[in-house]
Specification:
The chain is of the alpha/beta class. It is about 50% helix and about 10% strand. It is globular and about 65 Å long. Bound molecules: 5,6-dihydroxy-NADP and zinc ion.
Length: about 375
Amino acid sequence: MKNFVYDIPTKVYFGKDQIQSLSELVKNLGKKLLIVYGGGSIKKNGIYDSVLEQLKKTGGEWFELSGIEPNPRITTVKKGIQLCKEKKIDGVLAVGGGSVIDCSKVICAGAYYNGDPWNLVMNPSLIENALPLIAIPTMAATGSEMDHIAVITNEDTDEKIGTRHPLLRPIASILDPTYTFSVSPYQSAAGVADIMSHIMESYFSKEPGLILENVAIGLLKTCMDSGLKVLEDPEDYEARANLMWVSCWAINDFLKLGRPVAWSVHPIEHQLSAVYDITHGVGLAILTPHWMEYVLNENTVDIFEGFFRKLWDWQDKELDSYELVHKGIEELNKFYAKLNLPMTLHELDIDSSQFSAMAKKAEKQVQQGFVPLSESDIVKIYEASL
Ligand code: NZQ
Ligand code: ZN
């Protein structure tokens, strides 16, 4: 186990009605708040009203930035930064999915930066300060509510980049599982696939890490089990609660501490959602089994075998290692099918015309992956996913 510093400072208020803590939290931020939200789901399900009820108790002033798009754009980030500067905002409240929270993170950093905020995405070492951010996630997926990552799309260059900086981590997050009852089956399933991917990307490392591997498998099984339950009953509180908490622990850094971890499928997917604006988790579900097949070789087979033996409880299964891994991948595909997710890029109207251009951009980030991949390797993974 390598040396590490454990520092995951987001204060989490977890459970039904934890919104009651919001007024006190907001009072500590200052007088002027910016509320950031998406296309209106929070108005339909009543979360917006609950937030306002709390804000009215604070005696402070607030402004709003709405319409944050799934796969948030840098142009929207710029609008938020302008508002923060004009109104001299003291803190930001993000209410929504990962897109809203990610957009808010770069707004918080951009409020202290005078150049083009895309520079902060490309080069996070430029981030020197950030407004405090409180997150109220309304779906379980990205874990942005407890991590230091923001993924932003530049629509001019078709780039989608994940930027990382400790100052981007929310100071507090309010996680009420009932807020996720209204998430559609499609978005719920995509969220499950995203959480699964975060866990798997962290699991596959060139170095062993028994605690991390065992925790990862526990989180993964919980996520998959609860994912099927919420599709059956969207108001299953326990299952929604499990998903909400697993989504945080899948990506809040814990699974990365103590050994080198370098993600592969995410950079490959980010190109798809940058160019075709698809739902992130759906792209991951399509690509992951093909990535596994592609990187399966004599150096990785034991790691994949150990993973599938634990995941599917196949400790005693007598099979050749490669055969076992192929079967394990087949089972994973069957699980995605149970989530009713698309299984091919064709189903998303994606053809091969952009594969080379996308692979070129992804390559920069996957060169250091679990198995380093070149542009032509990535094209082959896209082609297998068609
Ligand atoms: O915009 P509204 O009207 O709120 O509707 C949203 C949106 O249409 C809807 N939704 C959210 N909560 C809801 C709800 N609908 C009904 N009831 C609710 N309670 O769901 C749709 C999708 O929202 P979005 O925020 O885009 O989803 P998600 O949380 O999956 O975020 C995806 C974005 O996060 C990035 C992805 O690449 C993508 O851009 N990621 C961020 C990461 C991070 N910060 O660590 C890591 C991830 O790997 C990922 O890359
Ligand atoms: Zn993800």
